[in-house]
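Quick log. Single chain, no ligands specified.
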Amino acid sequence: MTFADKLGRKFIVTGEVEPEAAVSELFLKKAEKFRPYVDALNVIDSPLGIPQLSSLVASYILKQNGFEPVLQICARDRNKTAIINDLLGAKLLGINNVLAITGDYPQDAKPVYEFDSVSLLRLIKREMPKRFKGFEMNVGAAYNPMAQPNEPEQIKLEKKLKYVDFIQTQMTFDLDHLENEVVRKNRKKILVGIFPLAPGHVEYFNKNIPGISISQEVAKSVRTVDDGIRLANKLAHSVKERGFGGIHLMLFGIEDRIGEILEGIV
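-> predicted structure:
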């Protein structure tokens, strides 16, 4: 069974790793920190379009090392032919999960954007299985509960839900942001993004990351890294209590503390 098959049957935990901009398998060291805890690991696909090791190659290496990978693929960098080529190759390599996103606008390259996230999902879930015998993948999409106003995000989420097996949300620090009708009807498909805050994160995110707005109440509660870990654990418990499918961990440099974030969860 894949992790997507288990959704609704058990509380799922996923994480993510980002390959280096190098001929390197160093991302495996981070992956090993997740091994005792996660059902699957996302492989990030070039945030901001900055070149790095292929997410397809990194996903295959993870699979060869006993992980269940989630191949992240951006519409930003590829036309239809390139997307189909990568996905057929991924399936042949035994990679069965893909997170399809539009992608950040690139800093150092020309974007493609032949697809948006919804049309990319439709291609993968509906069109490719009809065209290519043996092609079938678990397909996921992203949702940002913190974006304000949130109604446009909810409209896009409804469109995405026609094609997806799972949803991974962007980080959130107030689960009331997830209390809308679209989310309530699909809780079991949703993995809520958990990001342990540290001092300095709040100001940076609020100023530099579109769609992320962290309240002063949350900011005041995070004076140390330990505070951020405790808040993440509290949020993870609340996600489980509210009946969501699971959590998606976004960690940068504190992988040694995954056990504390998940204490009492798994």
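The CA atoms of residues 97 and 138 lie 5 Å apart.
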